[in-house]
Specification:
14 helices; 19 strands; ten-stranded mixed beta sheet; alpha/beta
Length: 504
């Protein structure tokens, strides 16, 4: 090889090396959107009957990846802790809003690593907007690492702020400020002076847009966690149908007489609210484009649990089944996928996408598995099974089988075991527990669940005042029925229990 050829080859190698180093140095911006209380069937991307029209979320699903089957938990607090830490309740002690074992309520992020802290420690600017409801440790605490925040807060929290300001906006009830019209938001330690025409999701997006603009100007990568208050069904504002309740309860759903007309109106409002949230997502995407960072930003859109009344708190699959869509820089366009995921995957995924895995000690074990290789197209499969829970009920799924309501507290220690094949969303499921041809599959589920012991009455929590109160409410016939079975509009499969009657 002559000298000129050698020099050319060396130059080419150097160029490739510099390009590789430059690409490695580019750090992705991450936007994680968490919708409140909404099942996949509400979004038109999933193609199910009665969906809202959500073209912007549909666009993300088409351009990136939409998981047909994704699990969280069946109530907000447990999902939000699992999302932050990448760990299930058996480790964190957070099973539902009412069950925080030990001192988890006060110290869960001192005991378990939050992805936001990892990203902040590796140079990310971090912000959160919307609803926290994930423990008493606040997002701006060092263990969580959010630089800025604009959060919907309670009067009790607002009273602890400097100079103890009084909230003068609307209330959802005696303990809860409005999340929608004339809402109660705290921005970076100060109560916002909201007006009657101010709307919660608008406040959140305005804060996020300002944060992104400022951070891009500073040439820093960012993490935005938009835990929006929408589309949670609670509303504040005068509805069109008559109400019964106190004079100050303007549209508080808890005080309304449940007439068919009002139920229809509430459903229409819920659909409209999801369509408005989709509009806000569109505005966010437009802002990302305007800032010139669309080729360096990834957007996640997920939900924390199923839709209220028809899914939330239920131990059936619809309870923890959630929306999960990812699109953006470097994400392979797959559209709808049969691969499985649950929210424990979020923390390790964000850490890997941010090139921050070196900040996590080898001793810290995630229950979740990073989606990054699958999202980037490096592999075509993700994980064999996913896990969900609804208070004391456990759920487990593979692509072909589903186990729900494993719940010794309510006499359902075996749960209900189904062969689903390629069917989804409850249609076409076959109850197969006890059938010899499915014994091997059931045994595999039992082996997996052996790693996640269920809550039983022997747990010390149920000797506490809170635990006894939970059991008392949990065992009420109406509560039990709601928890163990589908809403009447979603009874698509056999819900017969095949366990021993002695368990009851």
């Amino acid at each position: 090889m002559n000298k000129i050829a050698i020099k050319l080859l060396m130059s080419l190698c150097l160029c490739c090396l510099l390009t590789s180093q430059s690409q490695a140095a580019i750090r992705l911006n991450i936007v994680l959107i968490l919708a409140d209380d909404v099942s996949p069937d509400i979004y038109s991307a999933y193609g199910l009957e009665g969906a809202a029209q959500t073209p912007n979320i549909d666009y993300l699903a088409k351009q990136g990846v939409m998981f047909k089957t994704a699990y969280a938990t069946a109530k907000c607090a447990s999902t939000r802790v699992e999302l932050m830490t990448g760990r299930y309740a058996n480790k964190t002690g957070v099973y539902t809003n009412e069950i925080w074992l030990g001192d988890a309520m006060r110290r869960v992020y001192s005991q378990h690593l939050a992805f936001s802290r990892v990203l902040k420690e590796t140079g990310y600017a971090t912000a959160i907007a919307g609803k926290w409801h994930a423990g008493l440790q606040h997002p701006h605490d060092k263990v969580l690492g959010f630089d800025e925040y604009a959060l919907w807060e309670s009067p009790k929290h607002i009273a602890t702020l400097p100079r103890a300001p009084s909230f003068t906006g609307l209330m959802e009830d005696s303990e809860t400020t409005s999340r929608y019209w004339h809402p109660g938001y705290v921005k970076n330690g100060k109560l916002m002076d909201t007006q009657a025409t101010d709307y919660g999701p608008d406040i959140e997006l305005e804060f996020i847009n300002e944060f992104m603009k400022k951070t891009v100007k500073a040439n820093k990568p960012f993490l935005v966690y938009w835990a929006t208050v929408a589309p949670h069904g609670t509303r504040t504002g005068m509805p069109t149908t008559p109400l019964r309740g106190k004079p100050g309860d303007l549209g508080n759903m808890k005080s309304q007489k449940k007439t068919k007309a009002l139920q229809a109106e509430n459903h229409a409002r819920f659909i409209a609210l999801n369509e408005y949230l989709d509009l806000k997502v569109g505005e966010l995407l437009a802002k990302i484009e305007a800032l010139g960072i669309a080729d360096n930003t990834i957007v996640f859109f997920i939900s924390d649990n199923g839709t209220a009344v028809t899914a939330k708190t239920r131990g059936v699959e619809r309870g923890p089944q959630v929306v999960h869509v990812v699109a953006g820089a470097g994400i392979k366009q797959r559209g709808a996928t049969d691969e499985l995921t649950d929210v424990s995957d979020i923390a390790p995924t964000l850490i890997d996408l941010a090139q921050a895995r070196h900040r996590v000690t080898t001793q810290y074990e995630f229950d979740g598995k990073s989606l990054a290789p699958f999202l980037k197209g490096e592999i075509d499969t993700h994980r064999e099974w996913i896990y969900g829970y609804a208070a004391a009920s456990q759920l487990l799924r593979t692509k072909e089988y589903m186990l729900e309501v494993v719940n010794p507290l309510l006499g359902m220690s075996r749960g209900r075991f189904y062969y689903t094949g390629k069917h989804r969303y409850g249609k076409g499921y076959q109850l197969v527990d006890g059938q010899p041809q499915h014994h091997q599959a059931r045994q595999k589920f039992d082996d997996i669940l052996a790693n996640f012991p269920p809550l039983t009455r022997k747990h010390p929590f149920f000797e506490t005042k809170r635990g006894k109160r939970f059991l008392r409410d949990y065992e009420q016939p109406a509560t039990r029925k709601k928890h163990l079975y589908n809403h009447q509009d979603y009874k698509f499969y056999d819900e017969t229990y095949r366990g021993s009657q002695r368990e009851r």
